[in-house]
Amino acid sequence: MKRSWLILVPILVVMLSTNSAFGLQLITNGNFETGWLAGWSIGGTTFPFGLPGAIPHFNTWGDPGLGCKVALVAPPTIFGIQALGTAILYQSFVVPGAMSDVYVDFQYLPWSWDCINYDYIRIGMQYDTGGGSAFDEYVYWGGVDWGGYESPGWQSFSKHYDISGITGPIACSIAFGVTTTEDIVFPTGLFVDNVSVEAVPEPATLLLLGSGLLGMGAFGAVRRRKK
């Protein structure tokens, strides 16, 4: 009986280490289904209205994978006039130590009803591994001009980071931003949904966890036999 428990330990570790769904989810409210931006921060500056814009938005595209709500990032408009400036929707988080992999996933839809190319869309993540901050720019459109109300449609993004050589925690922020510099007539924006940053523990951590789970199971089995 003891031998069968020992065989199960490495099998469990392999199963957990190859399943990214076992990872630790680091993003709060990544699908925006709460109808609020809880867990997220709004940054940027706009003129003349003074407030950057990022709001929950109903899913009007009929894609069931997006749920009922998405996030809309764009400088605010009043009577159809878009403010100048930058709107940023971002969330800060910490990747714990003893992790081997990080998986970043999200869906996004940039759009513009534009005729002058003075709008900019940026998506990226900043992180600090102790040797200074670095910034990965995932998506960048500079001088957006799609000639009317156009969009490339919903896009899916996925990136894998191997952090097995980093022992300490990593402070990060993921950000979605829209900037308008001169065009205040035709708005530009960015829809975002299903944002996920998942950290997967190193095999040694999984081994401890697997051993603990199996130990609890064995303890329960012993108690049942005694009864």
List the helices and strands and how they pair.
Layout: H1 2-17, E1 24-25, E2 41-43, E3 46-47, E4 54-58, E5 69-73, E6 77-78, E7 81-82, E8 84-95, E9 99-114, E10 119-128, E11 133-142, E12 148-150, E13 155-162, E14 170-180, E15 188-201, H2 203-226
Antiparallel strand pairs: 1-15, 2-8, 3-8, 4-5, 5-15, 6-7, 8-14, 9-12, 9-13, 9-15, 10-11, 10-14
Helix pairs in contact: 1-2
Q: Specify the structural class.
A: alpha+beta
Number of strands: 15
Query: What characteristic shape results from the CA principal axes?
Result: globular
For the largest beta-sheet, the strand count, sense and barrel status come to: 7 strands, antiparallel
The percent range for helix content is 10-25%
User: Beta-strand level of the residues, as a percent range?
Assistant: over 45%
Low-pLDDT segments: 8-21, 205-215
Secondary structure tally, helices:
2
| Domains, number | 1
What is the H-and-E element order? HEEEEEEEEEEEEEEEH
Mean pLDDT: 79
**CA gyration radius, whole angstroms:** 23 Å
What is the CATH class designation?
A: Mainly Beta
| CATH topology descriptor | Jelly Rolls
From the N-terminal CA to the C-terminal CA, the straight-line distance is 19 Å
CATH superfamily heading: Galactose-binding domain-like
